[in-house]
Amino acid sequence: MNPLAAVGRTTLHAVAAVGRITLFTVSAIVHIFRAPFYPRQFAIALMQIGWLSLPVVGLTSLFTGGALVMQIYAGGARVNAEAVVPQIVAIGMVRELGPVLVGLMVAARVTAAISAEIATMKVTEQIDALITLSTDPMRYLTVPRVLAGILVVPLLVAIGDIIGIMGGYGVATGSLGFSPAAYLRNTVNFLEPLDIASSLIKGTAFGLIATTMGCYFGINAGRGARGVGRATKSAVEATAVLILAANFALTAVIFSL
Amino acid sequence: MITVTNLFKSFGETPVLRGATLTLSKGKSTVVIGKSGSGKSVLMKSILGLVQPDSGTIMQDGAPLDRTRFLDDFGMLFQGAALFDSLPVWQNVAFRLLRRMPKAKARAIALEKLGRVGLEADVADRLPAMLSGGMQKRAGLARAIATNPSVLFFDEPTTGLDPIMARAINDLIRDIVRETHATTLTITHDMTTVRTIADTVMLLEQGKVHWQGTVSDLSETRDETLRAFIA
């Protein structure tokens, strides 16, 4: 076997997959603005992606905020900079950890659920049934989920940011001797509108990635239980990698502003 | 009338349809039989547009098949019923009706169709997962006939059912086809289905129609391939 041919084949497959995913994403976004719209499906997606993700997002952010305070306090103590703990926790949570953690939690919870559900619909011919009932799967299955992801994940990120900061606040004031009023004042005064905007922009991008990947891999699932399993695994892997890559790209763009 | 001419379809290097040609006569029940892998499902999916054929033509009443218009007047019973898991049974049946009329009217028609296929009104609000396989098939049949379509497709309607339920489904399909005068295409392995509902029988072999005739022709055939299949 020619190793060069294998590399070429793999590269072509990868480029083709990127092309298909890009076309799917563009199609999903374009279809948001086209009738018919399915409000019931949208409401269900809002509930599943937003409301039902709150506990996992809240707990993850709370523990991360608490741990972050201890790490920054320990590091800061080496250079007598313990006083900047509130500011660094705030910027760390809002600009970086909040969006990434929420994005990854949504990938684990929502992307997996979406891809498994749609893949199961594919293997049980429910998607074929939709088509024979004159219903476009893109409009009925993908658009409500993608729109809900774009709208609700930034909100989850904002909630995660606040809970993370409050987790840090609890540890800092409870066991590290920080003044509650000073901690909050330092946090609020330090954050700039761009910090919050960057958090919400990342949330929107991650919501788009998580829901689009779930739908794409679900609709393109192979046959049987194995097909469903592979689709779910691929969707979660692709979402996690794309979220981290998008986070880097967005951070670089926002950092340059 | 739906006419399929010289349909070819390959998946990679594997040819599945190799010049399939057939006619579904208006108001008649056509049943396609054949071994697994003979191309029955691909043929049906090609007509529905779920699979894109490599070449060949599909015409309806002398003009190229307009799928949007075709599907608007079409119903199908899938092999596994393919009911939507997240919707109660009545909303599955009324799926298309809910876009055309108020909810109360759509529900009333759904209940009437469920009654037509022998399901009590108390199943209407259950989720499909709470029904037996036979009940799911009946609900799928109710969904297929909900809008009184003029074209009906049945994909392996009795697969996975016990003989009594299979006979009940066959009888239901026969009665519905007679009542509605729909143009129907059924693919099956089940010779009881063939004998119960077919006006025309076709044997698909290696991707094309190998034999065609009526139910009474079946017993008199000397075609070895067909005899091996129906034995």
Can you lay out the helices and strands and say which pair or pack?
The complex is a heterodimer of chains A (257) and B (231).
Chain A lengths: L2 H30 L6 H11 L4 H25 L6 H39 L2 H7 L4 H39 L4 H11 L2 H27 L4 H32 L2
Helix pairs in contact in A: 1-6, 2-6, 3-4, 3-6, 4-6, 4-7, 4-8, 4-9, 6-7, 6-8, 8-9
Chain B lengths: L1 E10 L2 E11 L4 E5 L6 H9 L6 E6 L2 E2 L2 H6 L1 E4 L11 H5 L9 H14 L16 H13 L5 E5 L7 H18 L2 E6 L2 H7 L2 E6 L2 E6 L1 H6 L3 H7 L1
Parallel strand pairs in B: 3-8, 3-9, 6-7, 7-8
Antiparallel strand pairs in B: 1-2, 1-4, 4-5, 9-10
Describe the protein in words:
The complex is a heterodimer of chains A (257) and B (231). The longest helix of chain A is centred in the middle third of the chain and has 39 residues, at 85-123. Chain A is mainly alpha-helical. Chain A has nine helices and no strands. Chain A is elongated, with a radius of gyration of 21 Å. The termini of chain A are far apart. Chain B has two domains: 1-73 and 149-231, P-loop containing nucleotide triphosphate hydrolases (Rossmann fold); 78-148, no CATH class. The model of chain B has no long low-confidence stretch (mean pLDDT 91). With 231 residues, chain B is an alpha/beta fold. In chain B, helix 4 (103-116) crosses helix 5 (133-145). Chain B is built from nine helices and ten strands. In chain B, the strands form two sheets. Chain B has a six-stranded mixed beta sheet, sandwiched between helices. In chain B, strands 2-1-4-5 form a four-stranded antiparallel beta sheet, with helices on one face. The A-B interface holds A 36, 44, 120-121, 124-126, 128-135 and B 45, 48-50, 68, 71-72, 74-76, 78-80, 82-86, 95-96, 99, 143.
